[in-house]
Design a protein that fits this description.
Length: 174
């Protein structure tokens, strides 16, 4: 969802154009005070802010920025910006955020993969060493064999869940 903050008479027209271009629902706030109220209630992908409001209401602007959360702030001068530029700027900001999120997600998956891979290797090695013990009771050996098989299956699942570096970069749009 996108929040459009402007007292402009073209606000509804801009909201419709943004919704069509991004596929996101667009809410309009005619003031920064109203924007703060909406930001407290809902999370937004982007917040399009009229430069006029930011310059004429600095205290409210600061409070608005404090409530943005993870929303992308997009500053627009509605007095000189056409509809095409507004749409282009917001679309670019949203795409940039999506790329950043994909890269962060891939980095987190890579780190988790590395951590889990070390633990899985240790479990497999420990199971193999335990199975080599000659005085191991048969029931314990069967249980260890089961653990070894489960950990082997877990390793295969982990390897198939983590994409290659090239696929990761394509998914992140790099």
């Amino acid at each position: 969802m996108i929040l459009l903050v402007t007292p402009s008479e073209r606000a509804l027209e801009c909201a419709a154009a943004l919704s069509k271009a991004t596929g996101e629902e667009v809410l309009v706030a005619e003031s920064l005070a109203r924007a703060i109220t909406l930001l407290r209630v809902e999370d937004y992908l982007a917040v399009v802010l009229d430069q006029y409001l930011l310059e004429t209401r600095p205290q409210e602007a600061e409070a608005t920025f404090e409530h943005l959360g993870t929303a992308i702030p997009v500053h627009v001068n509605f007095a000189i910006s056409g509809m095409e530029r507004l749409v282009r700027d917001v679309r670019a900001a949203v795409q940039r955020r999506q790329r950043e999120e994909a890269q962060a997600r891939q980095a987190a998956m890579g780190k988790l993969h590395g951590e889990l891979n070390g633990t899985i290797t240790a479990l497999l090695l420990s199971s193999e060493l335990a199975l080599e013990c000659s005085d191991l009771p048969r029931a314990a050996a069967e249980k260890l064999q089961s653990v070894y098989a489960l950990v082997t299956r877990l390793r295969k699942q982990l390897e198939s869940a983590v994409p290659t570096d090239q696929a990761t970069q394509r998914a992140a749009g790099v």
